[in-house]
Here is the input.
Amino acid sequence: MKLDMKKPWKFFLLTFVWSWLLWGICIIFDFGITEGIGMLFYVLGAIAPSSVGILLAKWGENKEYWKNFLNRISNLNLIKRKGYLVIFGLPPIIFTLAIISNYLVNGSLISFSSLTSYIANPLSLISFAIATLIGGPLLEEMGWRGYGLDHLTKNHKLISSALIVSIFWMVWHWPLFSIEGTLQSTEISKSLISILIYNIEIFSYGIIIVWMYSDNSRSILSAILFHFSINFYAGLIQLPVTVKNLGTPFLFTIAIVILLYWKKQEKSIKTVNKKSNIKKKRSS
Here is the structure.
């Protein structure tokens, strides 16, 4: 059966047009997300990745693909035990390294007022967790990794697919720097260096999420949970941007190690195939 080379690009095109058109309205008319209409257009734009992914998986594929798509969203058993350790263990490790780095560089410790307030009111922690799960992971991962990456890997090598989807995911966030009230506009865009670091952070997390996806039987749920874990711990601790940025070099290093590992795997596969072809020629 011939693969449709256009499917992942159709997803990327529809997602960008959908999101950027609505976010563009916010930018043109200066709607901030603190305003009702601004929040409406912001949310309607944010739901694009998973919405497009679900629509294409449901009506652009056969029934078998749709069944498999739903299984990869809901099946906890697709994720290895070590996968869960990475999902819920890596983000707090990165944040801890950032805190330690800040102490070594500046000689100061951060306050954990946000964490303290959540501990004092556990019910607020539950509502925060639910909002965090919906606010990014569920709205995005069924599209970026669930449909887009899945179809990229059918036509491209894993390393190429990871780079493509991670770069697109990074660029997709750019209009948010110009919408008042978003994280990108209020905390990140204070300097070009800060914006650059933010993009490196998003790109690095993108590579790590692809690794989680590929290492756990193409589990969309693993991508959702890892994305959730990132946002949950970030909101729980609420590190100042200057402190959080100190964790980015560690993230980027992990991403590079993953890419190098995939590159080594590709070379090993080529070597094995080459030796196999030589043996076949000799035997014939």
